[in-house]
Amino acid sequence: MRPVVLFDLDDTLVDRQFALARWVASFRGSFGLGQEDESWLANLLAERAVPEHFEVVRARFRLSEPADVLWGRYCTGMAAAVSCPPGVLAGLEELRAVGWRIGVATNGAADIQWAKLRATGIADRADAVCVSEEVGARKPELSP
Q1: Cβ neighbours, 10 Å, residue 71
Q2: Exposure pattern of 116-140 as b/e (b: 16+ CB <10 Å)?
Q3: How far does Cα 91 stand from its chain's mean position?
Q4: Closest C-alpha among 71, 31, 40, 36 to residue 54
């Protein structure tokens, strides 16, 4: 039997906080928001982002774009902004080369998590991925 290693995605395999800061700054510029608005948005999305957050964003900033369009912009923008710390991809390849199977277990909405996995190349290096939204449970929740 081949050994298995499981990794978390956000702030382990990818630098989510850096990507979020870049995305929030870009969003602020796109909509002409102030520094205080940028801080509010960063705080709202700091721990995690879900589509429902963008109903709140839309209302707070009186945006005409529907929440699902704003969520789509977030997913696209975060995928473009996210990166792996140096050595992550090479490390995953080295583990696989010596016989390890690679798994990723991540909390979050499936569309954003898969966008980040694909954009960084992690999806191509993982043998299995478990996204909380797809399985209906969040880490570290235990099953009965």
Answers
A1: 23
A2: bbebbebeebbeebbbbbeeeeeee
A3: 20
A4: 71
CB 80 within 8 A of CB 87: no
Q: Could you read off the pLDDT of 11-50 as tens digits, one per residue?
A: 999 999 999 999 999 999 999 999 999 999 999 999 989 9
CB 131 within 8 A of CB 115: no
C-alpha pair distances (Å), 87 with each of 12, 40, 41, 47, 59:
12, 33, 31, 25, 41
Asked if residues 9 and 83 have their Cβ atoms less than 8 Å apart, the reply is no
Global pTM? 0.89
CB atoms within 10 A of CB 3: 9
Nearest residue to 116 via CA among 47, 14, 23: 14
104 phi and psi, to 5 degrees?
Answer: -125, 125
* 34 half-sphere exposure, CB direction, 13 A CA radius: 2
Strands of the 101-106 sheet, one edge to the other: 4-7, 101-106, 128-131
